[in-house]
Amino acid sequence: MAAGNLPSAKHVAKSLETVKDTPVKKFPNASKSAIEFLSLIGTDEIQPCLFEETLVAVSENGQTIGTFSISVKWSHYSLDEWCEENCYLVQAKSKGTVDNIPCTTSITGYVTTRLETLEQHTEESMRFREHPVETRTHVVKRQGQMVVTKTVIERDEDIHVNSSPYNCELLHGLVSESANLLVLRVMARRQTVPENAIFLSFDSDHHICTSIYRALGFQKQRINKEEVDVFVIDRTVHSTEGIPLNWQFYFLSDGHLSRRVQVGSPDIMLIMQMPILIEIDEPDPRPVFGKIPLDWEEDVELYSQFLDRKEELQASHATYVRRHPELSNLLADFLQLLLLRKPDNVVTFAAEYFAPFSVQNPPCRSFQSSDKPSPFRSRV
Known about the structure:
Layout: H1 9-17, H2 32-39, H3 43-46, E1 52-58, E2 64-78, E3 84-98, E4 101-111, E5 117-126, E6 133-142, E7 145-154, E8 157-167, H4 177-190, E9 197-202, E10 208-223, E11 226-238, E12 245-251, E13 257-262, E14 268-270, H5 300-323, H6 326-341, H7 346-354
Antiparallel strand pairs: 1-2, 1-14, 2-3, 3-4, 4-5, 5-6, 6-7, 7-8, 9-10, 10-11, 11-12, 12-13, 13-14
C-alpha cells in the first residue's frame, strides 16, 4: 500500500460512519461509451503499457525548468494480511519551478485490472521562502465507499483536514489521475478515442466532476533530428466550481508520451530523445498441411511394418493359447452347447453361460433352477 503520511484506519472508519448522516449528492454520469470502453480493456492490452518514461519541463524561452516521470508496473495490494489482489502500481512525479518557486507533485496509485482505483496518494508542495505549503490528498476504497481525505499543511502543521465519502455505486466510469495515465496509453496504442468519451474524475479540489477525452488526430513532431507522427489526445476536466482545465497529450505509436501541454500555461513537457518503441511479437501463422491420400498397401515401408506387426501379434496369441489349454476346452464346450440350443439371442445366452465364472457374482450351483429368472433377460 502507499507508504507514509496516510490517514489512520481509525480516521477512515470515522469518515465511513459519517456516510449515514451525509446527504446524498447528485453526481454527473459517465457516458455509456466510456463505461463500455473501460469494461473491454483486458490485461493483454495493458501489458505493453507497463513501462517507465521521463520528460523534461521547458519554459517559454526554451530553458529546462524541471522533469516529469511516469512509472507503471505490476504490484499487489492488500487490505489486510489475508487478502491480496493483483493490481497496477502507477507512480508519477513532476519537479520544477513556477515563477522561481520550487513546486513538486507526486501521485502514487493502486489500480485494479479493471482500471478501478483502490487507493491513491497525492502530494503537492510549494516551497516559499519562509512559508512552505503542502497539500496531501488520500483516496481509498473501503466497504463500498470511496473516501477522499484532503490535508493542507503549512509550516509543518496541519491547518485544515477535510474528508468526503462517496458511494461507489454512483461512481461508474470513474478515472482517477493514476488510472488516467493507463487510459491514455491504451487510447494511444489504439490510436482512437471512443465517441462521447465522458468519464467521471476528481477536480483540483477532489470533487466529483466529468472529464472529456477527444482525439485531435495526427501531427508531426521533431525529436532530436527525427520527425515522427504523434497521436494527439485532448482531455478536459470540468470542475464543479472553477474553470475547466485542459491538457493535450502527444503519443508515439507504442504509448510513449512525447509531449504534454496544459492549455494556458507557457511551460510544456517534452521528450528529449527517441525511445526504443515497444513492439508486440505476433506469432507466426500456423502452417497448414494438405491432406495426402495414403495407400498403405502400395507403400513398401508401411506394408512391411504391417506384416511385421501381424506376425508379432499372431505369435503372441499362439503362445498365450499354448500356455492356457483350458481355453480351448472352455470355448469348445460353449460352442457345443450353443449349437445344441440354437438360441435366438446369442449374446444373452453367452452372458448366462459365463456368469458362474465371474468373480463378482456370489458362488452358486452349477445347475440353476429352470424357473429362476435370469438377470440378463427383460421382464414383461
